[in-house]
Amino acid sequence: MHHPNFQYVQYSHRLPVYAGKTFRYDYDDGNVFIIHFFDATHRHDEGIAGPHKGFNGYYTFNYVEIAPCVYFMYWLEEVYTVSQVADFNRMLVYTHYTYDAQGVRKSLFHSGIITELDSFSS
């Protein structure tokens, strides 16, 4: 049933290529994360090596597909504001963090490679 005052249009959006999958991100600085993408906008990040080993976070994020299979993602963590470009064509990731250190805004940038591990089932 549709309301007579609203035009009914069915929209279909293609799911991002990462949705429902698990990836390993190996960063140049030694950090390694396992990323479980539950769907297009929910993820679980698990640090398995490097300075962020033991890190464990669940995030809701936003994204824009800036080219086919290339996504700009952004979200807020407890300490960091994160911006990330994940290129699933070339399997490369670029991540920029900003954070507050005693009243001074700081930033970190690192890049790495992406490896698909398997499909994630929730």
Structural commentary:
The protein is mostly beta strands and 122 residues long. It is 0% helix and 59% strand. It is built from no helices and nine strands. A nine-stranded antiparallel β-sheet has the order 4-3-2-1-9-8-7-6-5, with no helix packed on it. Strand 5 and strand 6 form a beta hairpin. The mean pLDDT is 90.
Itemize the secondary structure elements and their pairings.
Blueprint: E1 21-27, E2 32-37, E3 42-49, E4 56-60, E5 62-67, E6 70-76, E7 81-87, E8 92-101, E9 104-119
Antiparallel strand pairs: 1-2, 1-9, 2-3, 3-4, 5-6, 6-7, 7-8, 8-9
- Please tally the β strands and state the result: 9
Structural class: mainly beta
For the sheet with most strands, the description reads: 9 strands, antiparallel
Number of helices: 0
- Binned strand content: over 45%
Helix and strand succession?
EEEEEEEEE
Low-confidence spans: pLDDT under 50, at least 5 residues?
none
Helix coverage percent: under 10%
Strand order of the largest sheet: 4-3-2-1-9-8-7-6-5
Looking at the structure, what is the overall shape? globular
Average the pLDDT over all residues and give the rounded result: 90
Sum up the structure in keywords.
mainly beta, 122 residues, single chain, 9-stranded antiparallel sheet
